[in-house]
Fold these 3 entries.
Entry 1:
Amino acid sequence: MQRIKIIHIDDDAKTIAYCKKLFQSNHLLSYEGGFLNATEALAFLDNNKIDLIFCDIEMPTHNGLWVANNLPYTVPIVFITAHTGFAIGAFEACALHYLIKPFTAEHLNIVVERFQNQQPKQPFLNEQISQFYNQYLSQNQQNSPSRIYINNIGKIIIVNLQDLMYLNGVVNYTKFYMVNGDVHTSSKSLKVYADALVYNKDFIRIHRAHLVNKKNVKQILKTNQQQWFAEMNNGEKLELSKGRIDEILEQLQS
């Protein structure tokens, strides 16, 4: 089996040295070099064909997103970050490969396997990076993505949020219920998407298992047993969290 040719870009020399050992110990990878800045890495890419780039997203002068937008040819990128929370939600919502510092050989194996499964079909890579770029850089302005990318084996499904009725979380899976009746399944938890949509006022977490587009809520129902439900436009009734009734009702009406 031909090994995957990779390079690593990070402004920290210690990180380059640590990761070099991990990369070289992985039998699926061919480590072609580590670079302390984006300019040197791009100069190398001008004369060398690489299959995959590992790149720190937070670097001075030119960050990882700048690298993605200035590549001399199309090549997948695994973004490396020290941040969690919102940034991770953004990575997941855009179906991009990523690693969290410090990562282990096991974490690396998972990403490499994911790359192998997805690599033959990357039609939306530039669009995914653009979506992430806008979302990641605008998080302080409390903006939100207009699309979510579901990464399934061998394909990526694009979900336009305006066409999404609600999301339902089941253990570590999330089902996307679309206005047209389609249902898509993601292997990510509902929390991932709740984090990514935290600034989108149209989507409300009404229950630990339900995240709804309030534009598709037909009515709110209350039973004799003091249970509350949101009836969606498709007729589905979703339970509201008992301890947050007033808060949820206020959000739905805003």
Note: Confidence is low (pLDDT under 50) at residues 120-124.
Entry 2:
Amino acid sequence: MNSRITFGYLCDFRNPPPWHRPWADLYAEMLDFIVHAEALGFEGIWLPEHHMSDDGYLPSPMTMLAAIAARTKRVKIGTAVALAPLYHPVRFAEDCAVIDILSNGRLEMAIGVGYRKRETDAFSTPFRTRGSRTDEFIQIVRRLWAGETVTHESEHFSIRSASIMPLPLTGHIPLYIGGFSQRALQRAAEYGDGYHGKIEGWDSYVEKLRALGKDPASARIREHHLNFFVAHDPEKAWEELGPYLLYGSMAYSKWLNEETMNYDVDNLDLIIQPMTLEEFKASGRVEILTPSQAIAYVEDMLARAPVEHFMMFVPPGVPLARFREYAELFASEVMPAFQN
């Protein structure tokens, strides 16, 4: 278990219609923000993945990770999460190895099975078998990273004498497993280097490790909070950020409601109904805290689980020049409390 928590940002590169700007400008501004975040002392930049989204939700995280690797020097980079059923394991292993080298060993990946049938349909991947496909995918990828020559025949893959070159710098890239279902937690315990998700899954994850005969002390968790921000004046910050946060949450809500019959989570509270801005504010789903409140929040989280990394969210559509001030405040008044 990690004794020190680090902090980072999840960047989805969305370009919402209400605040649309030229794509090249958005990508350049986000890369500049990432470089600035690294300079402030943040230690992780993470990219999600979705497809066929009207706002251009990042569909190609591997390409963007290569760009980030070239622009940064120290910060850890990776996916959170890549949709494993949409990848061939040989191509995934190769792409990761190249990015790991470009970043000088800073790549750390998180994968999940996804929940949108529309996405698996577009990639000619059966939705109902995405779990078993991902289990095999993980094992193949790990063997390729280790330098093995892999032959694998199954319902999902027909691979003959595959190997990759170059290899990752250390022969291993950390691979976290994301998701909210009990099966996702089982997959994290069985195949992952850690769990990427919510702290509510910690106890179950540890129990599943123990049931597999693994040392619970090896358990690793990364927490993400899509609606967590720090400001000296939370009410003023809400007025500024609220519309962007509502947009982001309602976009996820729309997807989840479309996929209710397919979505294998145990907590259907994740599926929320459309709300007005005031209803969203009253829902309690957004945490805008003062620096001292944020420190207390993180301390309480660490008392519940040894979270090694806490990732926050860059809201879709927010003016990045303005959002820098939120990152700067967090870096100057919250992070020092957790630096050993």
Note: The radius of gyration is 20 Å.
Entry 3:
Amino acid sequence: MPATGLQNILKRPLIFVSGKGGTGKTAVSQAIARSLPGRVLWICFEDPTRPPGALTQVGPSLWQLNASAGPAFAEYAQIKIGVKFLAQVFLQNRVIQYLATAAPGIRELVLLGKVWFERRHYDHIVCDMPSTGYGIAMFRSTGNFATLFGSGPVHRDAEAMNATFADPSLTGHLIVSLPEEMPLQESLELRTFLLDLFPGNEPALICNRLMPALPGTEALSDLDQGSPLPRDARDFLRRRSLLERENIERSWTRQGFQYFPLPFVAPEPGREHEHLVERLSTLLLESSR
């Protein structure tokens, strides 16, 4: 995807960053949040290392929210009931407590509902979605509940969420992959699912952790085939870079898919994650100019 395509996505108020676990989408989503202007909310979902529902200011105009189903459900109930005391009575009912934890899809719905509700308080919201399977379950929940409840506030809110997530002027979907065969293929499957669910809102592809290309060799077949093992670190880097390029060519480019590349960032001892986010944020800022 050209830089102009990424610029278009990053201008939208709501951005979902999805992908297979281990592709670096958390660092990418955090870097995107740091690169955006105005008041920005970066959302992660049910992070066990942080208090449920915790909202923390992490920059002059950047906040981080640990969206959690329990607090989100309680907040939604209070908004809809309108009276705090009555909402507390409702939430203390054992049947309601059971449904809030056991009803299929309810946790996913209230988590996305929290995202949808917060969009009016910030210029941009960037969501670090769970890995592909659970992320798909979250997006499915809005349509499922809109169908299950034929009318009423839950139906209206679920329909409104679907409309927001499908509107390319309001929501952008980014899929992060690695230059490896399985993540590249799974990213296309996720793209197909998102397009089926939100027709007309084309997801953008990001290929993360790309090794730099070294001059002197155009294809894997040009390498010395005497041994499958690299001779030294430079030979390893050359082989790795060529393999990544061929993976992308076979899985994406030949099928006409464009993507935005993000390079491998060498870790800085003692502050690996912070250095990675800072470097990716700088690259994203440069691409938007």
Note: The mean pLDDT is 86.
